[in-house]
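Consortium newsletter contribution from the modelling node. Members have asked for a concrete example of what our holo predictions look like. Here is one, prepared for the calcium ion complex that several groups have been discussing at recent meetings.
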Amino acid sequence: MIRSALMTVMTAAAQKAGRGLKRDLGEIENLQVSIKGPGDFVTAADKRAEKVLFEELSRARPGYGFIMEEGGVVEGTDKSHTWHIDPLDGTTNFLHGLPVFAISIALVRDEQIVAGLIFNPATDEMYVTEKGQGAFLNNTRLRVAARRNLAESLIGCGIPPLARAKHHPVFRAEFGALLAVAGNMRRLGSAALDLASVAAGRFDGYWERNIHSWDVAAGILLVREAGGFVSTADGKDDVLDGGSIVAGNEYIHRNMLATLRQAH
Ligand code: IPD
Ligand code: CA
Ligand code: CA
Ligand code: CA
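And here is the predicted structure:
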């Protein structure tokens, strides 16, 4: 359990925004939906949740900056602290009434992720972490899975929307290579919950391209604090701005990177 003042602020903000998402899930047929690009939607629920998070976190920590999926960058007066926020990760699932979506909040201090929270209001699963304090699901400490063999592993992944055609050859080659060696693969539709699933040992690994810092910042720290490894698809540590991600325990992570290298 993490009982810091910071985590109290983060959980309170997530719970407040989560109540709104739960209410909106019950009314999805009346939700205002706009299309950001092919296969990329935003709803009034995303925007309402983001507004709640912005207001609550600004009030509790005045001056911190924000990088948000819908609202973009809001510069703070405190240049060393930035919140990376996805108010609704898994909008497509949400729109279809699938209860697989989450709020993702991370705090970055001087380029280091220092705290992360992933909350699925539909299942009441609250994942929290702070640097050096471990990773937790509700009150249970998390540990990544111990499996070492890719052939027995369950690997999460993401599928980029059709419009991002330039990534398709890379995506197909990498997906095919992983599928050929993994026990099996899954696509949840929420990058944050994919990473939370790795931290919880439900998935052995996770791979995705075309991700943004707000999708993964909280999940990266959660996996690392649960004893796992996270890098870009070409093995670099700088995943926040790297655009691709591979996560797993030491062995699965290493084997996934080797598999991806051979895919090209
Ligand atoms: C999306 C989800 C999805 C991932 C996409 C993301 P959104 O976020 O995390 O799993 O494959 O790349 O954009 O748009 O639902 O917040
Ligand atoms: Ca989106
Ligand atoms: Ca997202
Ligand atoms: Ca989102």
